[in-house]
Amino acid sequence: MKKLGLLLLPILAITLMGGSAFAQNVGDDSVYFVTYYSNANTSGAPDGTLRIINDGDQATEASEGVENGTLWADIYVFDDSQEMIACCSCQITSDGLLSESVNKELANNSISFTGRAEVQRGVIKVISDRYSGDQETPTPLTGLRGWMTHIQATTNGEPAVKSGPDTSKGPWFVTETALADSNLGPIEASNLGYLCSYGYTIGSGYGYCGCTPEDYDF
C-alpha cells in the first residue's frame, strides 16, 4: 500500500499541475477600462502616469523577430465637466508596455481640444482595439490591461489666483490602482468615437494626446 501511495503521488502532482494550467484560461474578456486623474497641472504636485500592457493573448506562432498580436489602446480623456479634451490610439506590441504622462500627454492644455489651462481632474477611458488608429471607430478586441497612478492631496487648498491652479494642497501622496473593467455598449462606443472625431474637426489639429514609445517609462 505504501508503494502504491508513493506511485500515486507523482501522478496526482502532474494532474494538479495540468488542472492549474487549464484554470489560467478563465481571465475576463474586458475590452473597456475607466479611471480618473487628479491634481494634474498643479504646482508642486508630481505627474500621474497611465500604464497599459499587452498581455500577449492575441499572439500567434511566428518566426523569430516577426511581431504579431499587436493591439492599440484607444485613449479618451475628459475633464471634470464631462467634456472630451483629447483622444488618441497608441500601439502596444505583444508583451509590450505603454506609459503615458498625464501632464505632458493626456491633460496637456497645449494639445487639448479646449485649450483650457485649468484642467486638473477628470476621467480617462481606454478601449482595447484590434486596428491601428481606430479611436474614431473603435473595434474592440481583448488583450490590454492597465494601471493608473493617482496624485492625492493631503489638504484642501484654495487657488492662489481664482483663475489659476491650486498651489496649497501639498504634501502629496501617490497611489496606484488597476483600471476598472467596464461594460462597453454600442452607444458608448459610438459616442466616444463621435466625440473624438468631432473634437479633431473643431480642434483644427489639436486634441491628439500623443503616444510614448514603448521602451520609455516615467
Summary tags:
Hypothetical Protein Tm1070, Chain: A, five-stranded antiparallel sheet, 218 residues, disordered N terminus
Structural summary, described in words:
By secondary structure, this protein is α+β, with helices and mostly antiparallel strands. It has one domain (29-57, 68-203): Sandwich (Hypothetical Protein Tm1070, Chain: A). Helix content is 21%, strand content 28%. It has three helices and nine strands. A five-stranded antiparallel beta sheet has the order 4-3-6-1-9, with helices on one face. Strands 5-2-7-8 form a four-stranded antiparallel beta sheet. The longest helix is centred in the first third of the chain and has 22 residues, at 2-23. It is globular, with a radius of gyration of 22 Å.
How are the elements arranged and paired?
Blueprint: H1 2-23, E1 32-37, E2 49-54, E3 71-79, E4 84-92, E5 97-101, H2 102-106, E6 122-129, E7 144-153, E8 172-178, E9 180-181, H3 186-203
Antiparallel strand pairs: 1-6, 1-9, 2-5, 2-7, 3-4, 3-6, 7-8
